[in-house]
Amino acid sequence: MADRHDVAVLVGSLRRDSLSGRVAHALGVLAPPRLSLRVVPIGELALYSQDYDAAPPAPYVAFRDAIRAAAGVLFVTPEYNRSIPGGLKNALDVGSRPYGHSVFNGKPAAIVSQAPGAIGGFGANHVLRQSLAYLNMPVMQQPEAYLSHSDKLVDAAGNVTNDTTRDFLAGFMEAFAALIDRYAGRPGG
Ligand SMILES: Cc1cc2nc3c(=O)[nH]c(=O)nc-3n(C[C@H](O)[C@H](O)[C@H](O)COP(=O)(O)O)c2cc1C
């Protein structure tokens, strides 16, 4: 039997009732039982400054510990102005430092972008891939997940509203579990 894995979920939106949060909840329900998903909050992270490298604030320490303990990182994010929200970029910066001690190094990752609009956060999804390449995270290539019209796909309780999306998201999480299996036990994994 495959090992169980803890997955850190980084939600790119900070607002209450976020569609990204709903999608993250749905992914937790649909994931295979050997994955345990936990949202790691990013809203309390002060804007990154190298001055904090020597004396990190408590939320930095908690965030870095949570990522370090996870076998993989799942990003669920909206698109802000054709890029990723600043809070999510800040979380990447916080986790990447001090230099040489990035908690993201080698962690398998998967990205789900969502938008109520038609493009499904494609821009954010690929901007994020650029940073994850630099952070040396093996990012799941297929399937890709750009959830357009997301306000119609997941209800307020985080339930997926149609079978096609439910099957797609379940398959997405199964593929991510297989990627994590491959990297488990390696440095960073
Ligand atoms: C600052 C800001 C910028 C946005 N830029 C985009 C964008 O570039 N593309 C897009 O499809 N939607 C954009 N939107 C709309 C978001 O997709 C929509 O608000 C979405 O619900 C945000 O995700 P959330 O529900 O998880 O907070 C933007 C929203 C905000 C607040």
Short recap of the structure:
This protein is an alpha/beta fold.
Task: Report what the structure shows.
The chain is globular and about 50 Å long. Helix 1 (19-30) links the parallel strand 1 (5-11) and strand 2. The two termini are 18 Å apart. The protein has one domain (5-183): Flavodoxin domain (Rossmann fold). The chain contains six helices and five strands, in the order βαβαβαβαβαα. It is of the alpha/beta class. The model has no long low-confidence stretch (mean pLDDT 96). Bound molecules: flavin mononucleotide (FMN). The site of flavin mononucleotide (FMN) has 14 residues, from helix 1. Flavin mononucleotide (FMN) binds at residues 13, 15, 18-20, 78-82, 115-117, 119.
What value does the average pLDDT take? 96
Structural class: alpha/beta
* Element-level helix/strand string: EHEHEHEHEHH
The rounded Rg comes to 16 Å
- Quick one: CATH superfamily? Flavodoxin domain
Unreliable segments of 5+ consecutive residues: none
Task: Predict the CATH topology.
Answer: Rossmann fold
Q: What is the CATH class name?
A: Alpha Beta
CATH architecture annotation name: 3-Layer(aba) Sandwich
Distance between the termini: 18 Å
Domains counted in the coordinates: how many?
1
Order of strands, widest sheet: 2-1-3-4-5
Shape: globular
Total strands: the figure is: 5
